[in-house]
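Homework help board

Subject: predicted structure for assignment chain

Our instructor gave us this sequence and asked us to write out the predicted structure in token form, then describe one feature. I got the tokens but I'm not sure how to describe them. Can anyone check?
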Amino acid sequence: MRRRASPVRGRSAESWGAESPGLGHAPREAEGEKRAARAPERAVPSVMQIDRPRLDAFAAVVRPRIAGDLRLDALSTALYATDASLYREPPLGVLIPRHADDIQAALEEGARYGVPIVARGSGSSLAGSAVSGGLVVDTTKHLRDIVAIDAEARTATVQPGVVLDDLNRAAAAHGLTFGPDPASSNRATLGGMLGTNATGTHSIQYGAVVDWVESAAVLLADGTPTAFSALTPDQWAAKVGATGTEGEILKRVDALLKVHEHAIRADTPRWWRRAGGYRLERMIEAPEVDRGPGRAWDGTRNLAQLLAGSEGTLAFATEITVGLTERPAHAALGVVHFPSRASALEAVAGIMETDPTAVELFDRIALARALDVTEYAPKLHFVQRGPHGELPGALLIVEYSGASMAEVRDGLARLGRHLGPSAVITQLEEEARMADVYAVRKVGLGLAMSARLPVQAAAIIEDAAVPVEHLPAYIRELEEVMAEWNVEAVAYAHASAGCLHVRPFLDLREPAQVEALEAVARGSARLARKYGGVIASEHGDGRARGALAEDFYTPALYAAYQATKRAFDPTGQLNPGKIVDVPPLTEALRMGPDYHARSVSTAMTFPDVTGRDVGFLEAVEACNGSAVCRKTDVGTMCPPFMATREEKDATRGRANALREALSGGLPSLTGPEVAEALDLCLSCKACKAECPASVDMAALKSVWLEQKYKEEGPSARARLFGFMPQMAKRVAGPLAAIANRVNALAPARAAFARLGVATQRPMPTFSTKPFKSSEAGAAPASPEAPRVALYVDTFGRFQEPSIPRAALAVLQAAGAHVEVPAYRCCGRTYLSKGFVPQAEKLARELVATYAPLAKAGVAIVGLEPSCILTLRDEVPRLVPGEDAKAVAAAAVTFEEWCDAHADRLAALDWQTPAGEGNTALVHGHCHQKALSRMSASHACLGAAGLSVTESGAGCCGVAGSFGYEAEHYDVSIAIAEDRLAPAVRAAPEAVVVAAGTSCREQIHHTTGRTALHPAEVLAARLG
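My token output:
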């Protein structure tokens, strides 16, 4: 059943909105006096301060009882001090449990030693739900089993660390899916979703987690195991009369439901999309309160439903059983363009009458930011610009689904009739193109949060929701509140559910901006109450909304919530300071007025989307914690995390470690803590493309290594790999045969091992006949011939000269006039190993050689993706001025050039080599995927008659020198075996193609297959 826009039931919006004085803005001193005067007794005692000896004693008794890891070190507590919210509070420690018994041990001993226990999923909370000074329990590494899927009963039982997309892939085999679909589905865990009562784009169709949770195996605050499920009145009465911890809890819950029944009925907000407070309205028959899409009171009580939105404050769920539903057979989108956000909002209520399954809003600010991010700009094909190239003021993404395409198209027709012939609508039916729309929509959060550094889009009021018919008025009046404080905002998300994620742009390092934050938050809460809405509708209370709850709810309802906390957790053991008795709104801000950090000096610049150099520090601070880097199923970011599932091995973890070191949270920028966090970074640059905030960890690591060398100097191995181009230039040619033979001998292998080089992997060989620039010849050029400067990199020139020779043959066959300038190293290996000053020197030499060609309109065509894309990315960041910019603009990959000149390639006579087929399995280099586009590879190879399939893998795992380093070899292989090696083995008939030299080496090393460069594939097919 779908939720339709409807008036507020029960009280009128006006009577519900009688304004509490606490919801307006007041000086904080007066506000504190008011709160103290009216605050009821705290739900639970304040959590005691745990000193280090007591914490060590706790650890000493817990560690022998667990199979997982209990970490109290500085790096671990720094990594878990933040999430995707505004807040920062280092925990006492971190538990990585291997099974539920580990959590039980922590709870039991925590109760004895006064150590609070805080459940955490992927740490993508926008409200600070798991930011706490207790012991954080991260379930995502080991507790991620899908225990069972019962297709007949349409249920799934999962551990709390299971990621939603993983569950849906397993359920899809049975034609089923889990209804709630948050934008963070590729890293959101079922435990975290239960904790926040998550929902998503299709909430009008599927409701929230509370509508789908059927039962849960839980550990109570003292570690007692039990299970919650639906109970009939007789079963409930029997449980209430039972002895033991569970019986006592049910007695207290039964009593509070009787005492507070009137408040629950009368004061629970009427709007159905509720994620704040506790779901007490689900425990009684309360027809006055909308229970959500298609949900009616069935006479049972289910404490598992009470866990939905409880943020781990009542019990720790170790297994969750949820309902599943049929996957929609067909869907289509109508993307409606509007001149302004206001006009889009005014249209929502009417569009809801056409019976859509979702209506999402995306405004101009978010669209403009998407255009600046490599991964998402090509996906904006659905956006129609105005006559002067301007972006629309806002989009409404309207979805229709059904059992047949005829039914779906009928929905689009209803939309068109409703809006009239003048409406600008992009209609999409192709699954891949619709996926692009939702891919952009799903990163709306990250795009919004990174739009205006150093001012950031603050996550504080984004979860408010009101009845759809009141949404325009709510937003209009909210904009008036923000205007009083000279605050602008970005808005996006679930228009069909009355939930618009509004993010005010604020710099919270300024005290006046903190004051504005509180004013806007309280103004939003006042308006949500006025219009019969809620302050938390899917992201939970956490600290951001929990601090407003006492004023938002009536005293009687808030007292009921406090009684609920006491009933389950009388000592405040579980995630204290959430839901009730929450610290002040502006306490413990991640980057508040007390935040101070230092930057570093480097030749490397870090330009933002406007080209302004924000510097190393601000580039680090750009990470907003949204945790896109924790995805494991698609894309390239972040290869080590995909292999280890460790927070420190995700881009967010590394950025947090750097920020903590720069701001004093860790002892030293170049100390062992940051070194550990950056150790497995492959410098793949996937984060620059796939992270919505475009955090460029590869560049950050280069500069970090540069700073480290200033203190202690580089290692011999770092010099070996970083200065490899110099060695290659000296050895290739007459000395190559000797060098290759010596490198393979046992003494040399032993010497390499002493340097920390992995002996399992053969060392690269050098060519006895390196490529020479003179091989291009001096053929006269026709006037219409495109001019090409073939950039022959170190690897092609000195190690694999067959590649530039093949490229030369293809380019000349296509009619290009090709010249090969003198050898100039791009500096890639130097940058990867932190030799930034040396890379800067090489970049200046390269610019001096290539700038005249670039300014003359000559395309600089490169073969090794990491090298040619260094010209495009880092060279202009090392060398200021127009010359470097001209070189960057002229630099293209071989595949990009072929794509741009597809007509010339199509005119050639292509032949299939004997023994080869016409299918190609292509693996893209990480830098290629981050800074170029794989569609060019498809076009390039397709021109020669090849049918192209991508490997679907992220990084190959070698990543320059990474896979050659002894301590990284196993991780390198694990990364390859995740997706790449299986894909190659599964395509025995295909020509395996990889533009990157590291990729080709890894493919051969793990599968025995020889991968070819695209230029080699094309050259072999020239007629």
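Reply (TA_rk): Your tokens look well-formed. For the description, you could write something like this. The CA atoms of residues 68 and 434 lie 42 Å apart. That's the kind of observation they're looking for.
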